[in-house]
Design a protein that fits this description.
With 211 residues, the protein is an all-alpha fold. It has helices at 10-13, 22-42, 47-69, 77-93, 115-124, 135-154, 159-170, 175-182, 186-204. The chain folds into two domains: 10-135, RNA polymerase sigma factor, region 2, helix turn helix motif (Rna Polymerase Sigma Factor, Chain: A, Orthogonal Bundle); 156-207, Arc Repressor Mutant, subunit A. The relative contact order is 0.15.
Length: 211
């Protein structure tokens, strides 16, 4: 069973306007990058274009997140980000002349006064859907959060502690069966399972969002 999906923590989002906050951006990209990439593939992009899509999306977010945060009707961060991703993917698919949003360039490469700010404002004003994202994206989001947290946790616990969690919580096996399988007491299974679940809660709090 995959834990229910948390939203991205408001305090983490508030760190995004600081381009030097590598930790915040690494966490955001680790969760959302794969979703944007797979969405591009489903929309019909080639792998190289899907890679470009990921870069363009996060470039757009970096340049407009400050303006977006100022909106009283901004909604959820992930809905806004994925809306940007869909819009940019459409640009790829319609084969329009594509330049990174906010670069302020004309077709001849020259900059126009105010073009960059206008592009940023446009991205910041993209409305986030009021309803929850589609079931497919919701499931993918949960999987990415779960996978990210699992990678962190497995590096910090023993193999038996991890198996006590996985076999009971994910595979659904009984405590007694897992205890016999691992050669440990039922009490140790409970302790190991609880330790990992507590760590999951601690890590996924980093992706909670306050409306």
């Amino acid at each position: 069973m995959i834990p229910s999906p948390p939203e991205t923590r408001a305090s983490l989002i508030l760190r995004l306007p600081d381009a030097a906050d590598v930790a915040a951006w690494d966490q955001i990209v680790a969760i959302y990058g794969p979703l944007v990439y797979r969405m591009g593939l489903r929309q019909g992009l080639q792998a190289a274009d899907a890679d470009d899509l990921v870069q363009e999306v996060f470039t757009a977010v970096a340049r407009s997140v400050s303006q977006w945060l100022e909106r009283s009707d901004r909604g959820k961060f992930r809905a806004w980000l994925l809306t940007i991703a869909r819009n940019i993917a459409v640009n790829f698919l319609t084969r329009r002349r594509h330049r990174p949003i906010g670069d302020g360039g004309n077709h001849d490469g020259r900059n126009r006064n105010g073009a960059q700010d206008s592009a940023r404002d446009w991205v910041a004003d993209i409305p986030a859907p009021d309803c929850e994202l589609s079931g497919e994206f919701d499931l993918e989001y949960r999987r990415e959060v779960f996978r990210w947290a699992a990678d962190q946790i497995q590096e910090t616990v023993t193999d038996k502690t991890w198996q006590a969690f996985w076999l009971t919580h994910v595979d659904g096996r009984s405590i007694a069966d897992v205890a016999e399988h691992l050669g440990i007491s039922t009490g140790n299974v409970y302790i190991g399972r609880s330790r990992v679940m507590s760590r999951f809660k601690e890590l996924t709090k980093q992706f909670e969002e306050v409306e």
